[in-house]
Design a protein that fits this description.
Blueprint (H helix, E strand, L loop, with lengths): L11 E3 L9 H5 L5 E2 L14 E2 L9 H5 L6 E3 L29 E4 L6 E4 H11 L4 E4 L6 H10 L6 E4 L3 H13 L4 E5 L1 H17 L3 E7 L15 H7 L8 E3 L4 H18 L2 E7 H5 L1 E4 L4 E4 L21
Parallel strand pairs: 7-8, 7-9, 9-10, 10-12, 11-12
Antiparallel strand pairs: 1-4, 2-3, 5-14, 6-13
Helix pairs in contact: 3-4, 3-8, 5-6
Length: 318
């Protein structure tokens, strides 16, 4: 038989960034040359399949079985960079890691002490911690802190967003934390309950964020009276009880400032949300506070999905 015009069958190659590991190709291979993978792809969080071409006859059944967006492709040889084999995908940077940009402490001139309510003290602590992003929804008795942030952040080139709900606010914090930026919110007990799923997601994805919960009475919507009813929830009930966040419980306006400042440092150190718990009394009670001697100029963690070329290969997932 004349084989001079025979066309070589093209054997499959895997595009790891597009392979979902669904296993359809595994079942389609008559020679059992395809198996489920064992290594997670860092860019997708999924496990691509593994192909052994030693005894592959190039029948193409696996390629036919592959669903969109086609994790298997017919190539005479695997592409040099399989991550960029698909024409719709941008090129990825040739790097293995991004270095952290550390925070800086900027010395400040001595300032007079202030007499402020607890929610104001917490807001001031957040500003000294370098927080320039606030996402929240008004709810008594925490709204005073949000109002102060709304007045001060625009003057500091910051961003204040009143979300349409507490659920929207916590997911905005998820996105901001994923970008490696410092974000906070003020809320009270019913609003904190609405945020729980988002907080659980942030814990699963190892993202920072500070939640100041000015507790009020329940059950349900309850009332606007001061309470300490969220302590067990914050300490033991997050993520259906299977996750935990750091919880700081201040007792004075000075501790409201100091603990909020500490909350941002701990949140980024552990890559985990931090909850600052105070009751309605402390949120509205005034007291003298001493201001910090330094201001934090935030850096940028190497794991951040910041939208620039240096962090392009990073991925945040739960």
């Amino acid at each position: 038989m004349d084989t001079s015009s025979a066309v070589s069958r093209r054997k499959p190659s895997v595009v790891p960034i597009l392979c979902k590991g669904c296993g359809r190709c595994v079942a389609s291979c008559a020679r059992h040359r395809i198996s489920c993978g064992t290594e997670i792809n860092a860019l997708t969080g999924l496990v691509p399949i593994a192909v052994d071409l030693a005894n592959c006859n190039g029948c193409g059944l696996c390629i036919d079985a592959c669903p969109e967006p086609f994790g298997l492709t017919a190539e005479l040889a695997p592409p040099a960079r399989v991550e960029t084999a698909h024409p719709c995908l941008p090129a990825l940077p040739d790097r293995t890691s991004t270095e952290d940009i550390p925070d800086e402490l900027i010395p400040l001139a001595a300032a007079r002490s202030l007499v402020v309510k607890g929610t104001y003290a917490s807001a001031i602590g957040a500003l000294y911690a370098g927080c320039r992003h606030f996402f929240g929804y008004p709810i008594t008795p925490s709204t005073d802190g949000a109002e102060l942030m709304a007045r001060l952040l625009p003057a500091l080139d910051g961003h204040f967003v009143q979300a349409v709900s507490e659920i929207a606010a916590v997911n905005m914090m998820y996105g901001c934390g994923g970008a490696g930026q410092r974000a906070m919110t003020f809320t009270s007990s019913p609003g904190f309950s609405l945020m729980l799923e988002g907080i659980s997601y942030m814990i699963g994805a190892e993202l920072p964020g500070v939640f100041v919960d000015v507790m009020r009475g329940g059950p349900g919507l309850g009332n606007i009276g001061p309470e300490q009813s969220d302590i067990k929830l914050a300490c033991r009930g997050l993520g259906h009880g299977n996750t935990q966040a750091l919880v700081l419980a201040p007792a004075t306006p000075q501790e409201m400032l100091d603990f909020t400042l500490l909350a941002f440092e701990r949140s980024f150190h552990y890559r985990n949300p931090v909850v600052v718990l105070c009751d309605g009394f402390l949120g509205q009670m005034t007291g003298r506070v001493e201001l910090p001697a330094t201001l934090v100029k935030p850096g940028l963690p190497g794991w951040a999905v910041n939208g620039d070329a240096a962090h392009r290969g990073n991925l945040i997932f739960s």
